[in-house]
Amino acid sequence: MFDTKMPLNINDTDMNLTSSEIHEHYGHTEMTFTLIRCEAWSCAASLSNKRTLQPFQSSDGTEQQERAFYALSLHLQDEYLRSCQPIATPMAKLLVMMAPLIIAKLRLVAFYPGYHGITRYNAALPPADKDSLFKSAIDLLEFERLLEDDCDLNGWRWFFANTHIQWHAMSFALSELCVRVVGDTEHAAWEVIDRVFPSISLQPSASEDHVWGPLQDLKQKALCYRFSSASAFTPSEFDNSMFEGLVSDWNL
Question: In terms of domain of life, where is this protein from (predicted)?
């Protein structure tokens, strides 16, 4: 049980040597970026302490997690994000983009292990939830590109790309691409992965990280499935450019 209070929602200018009492603001401040992350991980820690942030221990546990994530989403909206509209600053834009992705990340971490059947009750992840998590994983991976392409936000890319590599999102997306029927959604997912995956390998810690090797193997497995699925199409039905990409991918 944590008894440390959340940081105040204030700006640096609210503090000085003569301050005897500091009143926090409503809406977004220079501290809001950190506060949203603190709120999210406080929620995760609370669920973990209740032994529910684990894969499908029971249907009650799953529902409790969903309620917690929904409550967190409403809290972030009411406490911080409502004042970001209309978006007038780069920070407001970043917060509006980041908050739903944090919820998606929490759901992915909570529910992804159940997809592998590593659960006491052997509960299966429903197809609708699987599709939702797949989209969330792709959105998380694409966030880096959005930061890079947006001149207002690319100054934040170092934080998300270099210190917060989305291992869970990449792992889940590749796992799904090993079994999903090839369609427009899957092609779009591959476009995102092909852009993001090389940048992960360039990170200083990537070669030493214990998940990097298995992640490469998982990508090759997904590529095998993609290639075998593609062979079922006639040449006129399939874009040959995909096969050109496969050659370089196998040399990773």
Answer: Eukaryota
